Amino acid sequence: MPSIAGTFDVTITAETSSDTAAQSGLGRLPLAKRYHDVLDASAQGEMLSVRAAVAGSAGYVALERAEGSLTIRIEDGKHYYAFTYDIAETP
Question: What is the pTM of this model?
């Protein structure tokens, strides 16, 4: 299956949480991304996260809006692309 891949840089900024959010483990993090390679784009978004009382247990959802251009190869009328990333551990 045809696919493309590239890299991106992301800046995540922690915001001060309300007392209620802090007590329940909720977090809100603005995102700024810059995509490189075949996807040449910038994006802004928000990530909502939650940490549970169990060590290593957490979850998140992120939404973003990207604007830019994507160079792809089209075969038989089908478009393919893939995004792959690693999330670094935070101290």
Answer: 0.63
